[in-house]
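Appendix B. One record, verbatim.
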Amino acid sequence: MVNVSIQAAITKARVRRVNGAYALITDCRIARDEVVFVLQGELTNRPSKYSIQIDEHKHLEPLHDPHDLKSLIHFFNHSCDPSTYINFEDFSVRALRNLEPGEEVTFNYNTTEYEMSNPFKCHCDSENCLIEIRGFKYLPLSERIKLAPQLAPHLRGGILTDEKHEQD
């Protein structure tokens, strides 16, 4: 039965071209906390522009075939006001709120990446946009605390203890 729900979840978002860029877009209504898709890819010990950090020295790299469902993470874009989060118990991507068909599936890269291998200027236009995305290491304490419920396990212990964090 679990395999059926995971298989169904994989079809809830598709890669589409939006405003000249590729993005994951919902196909149907998705309820809060419902699985949108399951992370899949190749494990590596090196970060890249498209990898997702899943442990202190482990990264999930998308496959190079964009038609392979395991490559969905290649198109899993950042937002400072994301529509989903990663559940690290089963590596599922779940809705943070109810989603309508046609919404972009995004997550906050700062919830998984300690230090971005390719920092970038954010253009999410969120009211709370951080402007520059460099990774958890560079977040002020207030932002770390705000992200705590969605943080990857390897970042949870560093909310208050990372000696390099900036004070608000």
